[in-house]
Design a protein that fits this description.
389 residues; alpha+beta; Cytochrome p450; three-stranded antiparallel sheet; 17 helices; 11 strands; globular
């Protein structure tokens, strides 16, 4: 019998990894009942999930995202590359990828370090502090503003946009979108007239993207910026729950890139891939999928598959095994992964260095079936006696 999970069940929301993991050991493919979407298949094991994510018989389409709150005049900008299949996806990917290489992301590291430093300067004046609202959530929006040339006077509004996108509130989400699109159009026009050393100028300079495609890409960056925000706080919470791992990381700062990969595997904020739809009847792991049915990869579950990872539920920052699939796999592997990695590395390095006595006072997860993230992560930065840094 194929296991079935109801993602609105409080027991699943409270401990999804256990629920998914138990189901994975019964079947490589399970049934999900999802609020707002209905039934879908979920591929739970690593090898099957990788194969599914690269299978051209599973297609993205206009039903991939539900947008009940998006004003009609904004819809043309909403369908990002994440939702496109070849050949349109392949064309855009070829044009965009050079701006998002690991080398280009590394070139932005100094600017990202400065942003991280400015945010941490503000934390030093507070005790206790919620890292979600005061640091992790603003950081990606500040980076996006830097990389698309948003003037300093306009950045407070963009911080509000990021907060609205992160909120579990359809009304706030819908209300923010027209302003984001308006300001994204202005950003594209500004960099078209005055290019600088930033990501948006790189993309405009090639002349191969339309204005609509450029604006859509800015929107994509805003949306995708929630991943590093959530991963940073998940990672800090994980390190504080595993002091031996934190101590080892402090002792060898050069291991930070590998540590970030393991933390991404272990506490990725994305439990599921976007749904794809079977273009024909097919078989996944011995389970029959009918044409037209939606299928997702249970990414976080597959990243803890004991068939792929030794002691997968153990956080091991020195792990050297198969690559995780937190950024998906195949043609739709996240093109922004290098930029996300640099942000998380910069954030964790600076936090651990500047606040070695930081302790977690309170950590609360949101009951969100689509994202494993913290509602708040309240910390004291220097324990009972403040240190000078």
């Amino acid at each position: 019998m194929i296991p079935e999970l109801d993602l609105s069940d409080p027991r699943v929301l409270g401990d999804p990894l256990t629920a998914y993991g138990q189901a994975r050991e019964q079947s490589p493919v399970i049934k999900l009942m999802t609020p707002g979407f209905g039934f879908m298949w979920a591929v739970t094991r690593y090898d099957e999930a990788k194969a599914m994510l690269a299978d051209p018989r599973l297609e993205l389409n206009a039903n991939t995202f539900l947008r009940p709150a998006v004003p009609e005049h904004c819809l043309q900008y909403m369908r990002t590359m994440t939702e496109l299949d070849a050949p349109e996806h392949a064309r855009l990917r070829r044009v965009v990828s050079p701006a998002f290489t690991a080398r280009r992301a590394a070139q932005f590291r100094t600017r990202i370090d400065l942003i991280v430093g400015r945010l941490l300067d503000t934390l030093a004046e507070r005790e206790p502090v919620d890292l979600v609202t005061a640091f992790a959530r603003p950081l990606p929006m500040e980076v996006i503003c830097e990389l698309v040339g948003i003037p300093a006077q306009d950045r407070p509004a963009w911080r509000e946009y990021g907060a609205a996108i992160a909120a579990v509130d359809i009304k706030a989400f819908g209300e923010a979108i027209p302003a984001i699109i308006h300001d994204a159009i202005a950003a594209v026009a500004r960099r078209s007239a005055e290019p600088e050393d930033d990501l948006l100028s790189d993309l405009i300079g090639g002349g191969r993207l339309t204005t609509t495609e450029l604006v859509t890409l800015v929107w994509h960056l805003v949306l995708a910026g929630q991943t590093p925000a959530n991963l940073i706080t998940n990672a800090i919470d994980a390190l504080k729950a595993h002091p031996d791992q934190e101590t080892a990381l402090r002792a060898d700062p050069t291991s930070m890139p590998a540590a970030v990969e393991e933390l991404t595997r272990w506490c990725s904020p994305q439990p599921l891939s976007l749904p794809r739809f079977a273009s024909e009847d097919l078989d996944i792991g011995g389970v029959a999928i009918s044409r037209g049915e939606p299928v997702v990869a249970a990414i976080a579950c597959a990243n803890r598959d004991p068939r792929a990872f030794t002691n997968p539920d153990t956080l091991d920052l020195k792990r050297q095994e198969k690559p995780h699939i937190a950024y998906a796999h195949g043609p739709h592997f996240c093109f922004g992964a290098p930029l996300a990695r640099v942000q998380v590395e910069a954030a964790l390095s600076a936090l651990l260095t500047r606040f070695p006595a930081m302790t977690v006072q309170r950590a609360e997860h949101l009951p969100d079936p689509g994202t494993w993230r913290l509602k708040e992560l309240v910390v004291t930065l220097a324990g009972p006696h403040r240190r000078a840094f």
